[in-house]
């Protein structure tokens, strides 16, 4: 028997695609799935932080938003910054990214304006996960939401990301602005970060929250600087812990689909 007759005929599933591509004028890099809008911050971003590129198994592209300081965004969600966020998002889209996020969940106040301005997915705040996470558990259970600054959590932040009504009622929101190491590094922007001290503060807060409210079923971390401590909180509480990096990975896999490999 001719061995060539054993080979399957070429078809859409097995034949290689014709490799021919067209440049996009002005685009300086290719193959980047996630664009990240960055605030002006004097913070060292450790691995696991949204702002550390080595956190990811795929390339990301950063874009600094002019005048977007932590004080203006976290404390005030200043509406005057809207055009700056929109322009930066449009620049990322023009550079070929397939989805856009940011490094501060308080940017959620600008979610609608940014999503309206571009034609790619915008998941600008980690808090967009909250309505989905709440629905995972029985109505009697609650979601603990750890945020950088609980005092500045406002309707202007919560409404655009869907944390309203029954969803809001099932959230136990706790800020870390009273924690010395966290505040020094991430709110006061001292320029130094004690990772061990911050981990201890976050774990202590999480354990205390569960002790105060046993109906808590899971944790959600608002802040882009909190994912490095997710494993420690899960180990201390035994509860599911959702953070921003998990969200970014989720969206990356949605916009860069790859065939499954295996056997049957």
**Taking all residues together, what is the mean pLDDT?**
92
- Radius of gyration, rounded? 21 Å
Number of separate strands: 7
Structural class: alpha/beta
Strand order of the largest sheet: 5-4-6-7
Amino- and carboxy-terminal Cα gap: 27 Å
Shape: globular
Q: How many alpha or pi helices?
A: 10
Instruction: Classify the beta-strand content into a percent band.
Output: 15-25%
Largest sheet: 4 strands, parallel
Any low-confidence stretches, pLDDT <50, length ≥5?
1-6
- The helix content, as a percent range, equals 25-40%
Order of helix and strand elements from N to C terminus: EEHHEHHEHHEHHEHEH
Protein model, in words:
The chain is α/β, with parallel strands linked by helices and 264 residues long. Helix content is 33%, strand content 15%. The protein contains ten helices and seven strands. The protein has helices at residues 70-75, 82-94, 111-117, 130-135, 155-158, 165-169, 180-187, 195-212, 230-237, 244-255; strands spanning 34-40, 60-69, 99-102, 142-147, 171-175, 216-221, 241-242. A four-stranded parallel β-sheet has the order 5-4-6-7. A three-stranded parallel β-sheet has the order 2-1-3.
């Amino acid at each position: 028997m001719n061995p060539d007759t054993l080979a399957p005929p070429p078809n859409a599933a097995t034949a290689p695609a014709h490799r021919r591509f067209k440049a996009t004028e002005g685009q300086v890099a290719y193959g980047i799935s996630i664009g990240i809008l960055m605030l002006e911050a004097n913070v060292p971003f450790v691995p696991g932080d949204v702002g550390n590129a080595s956190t990811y198994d795929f390339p990301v592209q950063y874009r600094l938003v002019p005048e977007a300081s932590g004080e203006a965004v976290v404390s005030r969600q200043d509406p005057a910054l809207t055009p700056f966020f929109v322009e930066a998002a449009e620049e990322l889209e023009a550079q070929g990214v397939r989805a856009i996020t940011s490094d501060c969940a308080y940017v959620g106040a600008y979610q609608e304006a940014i999503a309206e301005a571009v034609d790619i997915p915008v998941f600008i705040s980690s808090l967009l996960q909250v309505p989905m996470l709440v629905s995972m558990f029985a109505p009697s259970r609650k979601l603990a939401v750890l945020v950088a600054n609980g005092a500045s959590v406002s309707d202007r932040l919560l409404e655009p990301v869907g944390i309203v009504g029954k969803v809001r009622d099932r959230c136990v929101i706790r800020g870390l602005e009273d924690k010395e190491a966290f505040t020094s590094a991430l709110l006061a922007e001292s320029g130094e970060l004690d990772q061990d001290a911050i981990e201890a503060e976050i774990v202590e807060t999480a354990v205390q929250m569960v002790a105060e409210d046993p109906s808590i079923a899971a944790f959600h971390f608002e802040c882009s600087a909190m994912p490095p401590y997710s494993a420690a909180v899960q180990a201390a509480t035994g509860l599911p812990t959702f953070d921003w990096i998990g969200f970014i990975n989720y969206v990356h896999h949605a916009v860069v689909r790859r065939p499954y490999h295996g056997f049957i």
